[in-house]
Design brief:
Layout lengths: L5 H11 L8 E6 L9 H9 L6 H13 L6 H18 L6 E5 L6 H10 L4 E6 L6 H15 L5 E4 L7 H17 L8 E7 L3 H5 L11 H21 L5 E6 L14 H10 L4 E5 L8 H17 L3 E4 L7 H18 L41
Parallel strand pairs: 1-2, 1-3, 3-4, 5-6, 5-7, 7-8
Length: 379
């Protein structure tokens, strides 16, 4: 379909609502995952291309998917999130066209951006299903958006990093409280173990714009959000719980330092110190995809059982109403900024407000320095 007529454009603007102007379409940007066994290895090869991951490691991860029938849960979770976003937008009188594109599997970003152009839209707002700053959780998505947009006339902005937004935090608080309730009398003894994806320490140390702490923005943001969630859980229960930040899903060679401690090592250490119950909170993940279902629900749960600890796993933000409402708030906020206004930018905890655009020195690509990315400050 070619460019729409002026009458059609005006009708679309009226349907969209002034709150989201100048954006004409919303693009949900996610990681992607296989939906049948024969897609597993091609998908993993896509994800790890150029990273030198050993074939035996890919085969090991592939077995995780095959244990779930060869289907990643992430695509269905994106579909549920899209449905929830549509409902929340309509509740507010907003009806933007919503698209969904993945970095690593169908529907691919380039296919969706071509569809957006065929439908006549140019100003696009991206909502990335990754809440924190780092190369792998921010800049790599922006690089893929740059590549996918090449050859189209799409002008793409994105919402800011949102891990410390009230909607995301509230979803984590509610999930932690619900998990604690499942422990019954053991709840008061439980330690909160916040978990995120491990990344190379060199990547972590360069996450976020300079000046940055020696740990980098990735660790600092997670630590700040974990502390805020633990504080709010304590306030709700009128009882504090000790908490930790740990990591899962390391995939690099043994010679390369990655963020530690690993959750399984940490659970064993806690058991050795007499901790009798844990609530594992996957604060680094937006939905219950493979790292959550296998690394936490399978491996970490087994480690806790072997160590004699009561175990509960909190849910991810998923399509929690506070999270969904918060994403729409972030869309409206970004649109106001694009119009030259100065919207309120609420955050909870000690981490800074996330960035609409990133500086060139933020979360650098160490394998391909200077690779272009969208949503980046020029000059």
């Amino acid at each position: 379909m070619g460019d729409r007529s002026a009458t059609s454009l005006q009708a679309s603007t009226n349907q969209l609502g002034k709150a989201l102007a100048p954006y004409e379409a919303i693009l949900l940007v996610s990681f992607g995952g296989p939906e049948r066994p024969e897609e597993v290895m091609p998908f993993l090869e896509n994800v790890t291309r150029g990273r030198g991951i050993p074939a035996e490691r890919l085969a090991e991860v592939g077995r995780h998917y095959l244990l779930l029938g060869g289907k990643s849960p992430i695509n269905d979770q994106c579909r549920r999130l899209l449905a929830a976003l549509t409902t929340e937008l309509r509740r507010r009188g907003l009806q933007p066209p919503l698209y969904w594109g993945n970095r690593n599997w169908t529907p691919y970003l380039d296919t969706e951006l071509q569809a957006i152009e065929r439908d006549g839209y140019r100003r696009v707002l991206a909502v990335v299903t990754s809440a924190y700053p780092s190369y792998s959780s921010c800049r790599q998505y922006r690089e893929n958006l740059f590549d996918a947009a090449r050859g189209t006339r799409a002008q793409i902005d994105r919402i800011r990093h949102y891990a410390n937004h009230p909607g995301f935090v509230q979803a984590s608080v509610d999930a932690s409280l619900k998990a604690l309730d499942t422990l019954g009398e053991r709840a008061d003894e439980a330690r909160l173990v916040f978990v995120t994806h491990s990344i190379p320490t060199a990547m972590a140390e360069t996450a976020g714009p300079a000046p940055r702490s020696s740990r980098g923005g990735y660790v600092d943001w997670h630590a700040a959000v974990a502390a805020e969630v633990a504080h709010r859980v304590a306030r709700q229960r009128a009882r504090s719980h000790d908490h930790d930040l740990v990591y899962c899903s390391r995939s690099g060679p043994p010679s390369q330092p990655w963020l530690e401690p690993d959750i399984n090592d940490h659970l064993r250490q806690l058991a050795g110190r007499g901790v009798s119950a844990v609530v594992v909170v996957p604060i680094g993940f937006v939905s219950d995809h493979m790292e959550v279902i296998f690394d936490l629900d399978t491996e970490a749960a087994a480690t806790a059982e072997e160590s004699g600890m009561a175990f509960a796993r909190a849910g991810t933000a998923g399509d929690h109403p506070a999270f969904v409402s918060g994403l729409v708030d972030l869309m409206v906020e970004r649109a106001a900024a694009a119009r030259g206004e100065e919207p309120a930018r609420p955050v909870l905890g000690s981490a800074a407000v996330g960035w609409d655009e990133c500086r060139a020195d933020c979360c650098p690509n160490m394998r391909e320095p200077g690779r272009p990315a969208l949503c980046q400050i020029v000059g």
